[in-house]
Amino acid sequence: MTPEEFDSLLRLLGSDREQAAERYEEIRCRLIRLFTWKGCNDPEDLADITFNRVAQNAAKEGFRLEKPDPYSYFCGVAYRVYQEDWRKRVKERRAAADADTVYPPGPIEPEDERLDCLQSCLNSLPDEQGKLLLAFHAGENRIRSRQQLAQDLSCSANALRIRVHRIRRLLLECMARCLGGEDR
């Protein structure tokens, strides 16, 4: 979202900037509850996508709301975002169901430098970070296992993804150093 789009969004929500910010938070919480109620995996992300789309529309010249309460417009945009998310989840389920045959990876050469670097970098991580990274990528049903992992860590799924992303970034930096500065 660009600064101009964000300003347009705030103007849409109210003439007073503080009032608009409060309205923003109120609508965001309501959208998160709506996406959660509909069973979405990432309700916060979907609420943010909804806000980005409304902001893009609000920045267009001549944009006007038909009703005084902008929440109904947000709900309409959220419905479209939900439909897209639902279609994406259906495609993922179909792809998983169609994957009858699982091909094992090719043989790993013991002298493969990347594998040695990966093992070395994994060992250099603090124990809890290494275990978290491996647990995040393990399991047959990744969605459920990640939800359970987030619940075990008493954090949201989004916070878990952020933690793993940071650990993965550390791992990639270590790998680049190990492999002599190659970008991977």
Task: Please describe what this structure looks like.
It is built from eight helices and no strands. It has 184 residues and is mainly α. The longest helix has 28 residues, at 71-98. The chain is elongated and about 60 Å long.
What is the structural class? Answer: mainly alpha
Rg calculated over all Cα atoms: 22 Å
Mean pLDDT: 83
Give the domain tally: 2
What level of helicity do the residues show? Answer: over 70%
Shape: elongated
What is the strand tally?
Answer: 0
- What is the straight-line distance between the termini? 29 Å
Helix run count: 8
Q: Describe the biggest sheet? A: none
Content of β-strand: under 5%
> Which residues sit in consecutive blocks of at least 5 with pLDDT less than 50?
none
The helix/strand order is HHHHHHHH
Short description:
By secondary structure, the chain is mostly helical.
Q: Which features does this protein show?
A:
mainly alpha, 184 residues
List strands and helices in order, with pairings.
Elements: H1 3-13, H2 17-37, H3 43-58, H4 71-98, H5 113-124, H6 127-137, H7 142-152, H8 157-178
Helix pairs in contact: 1-2, 1-3, 2-3, 3-4, 5-8
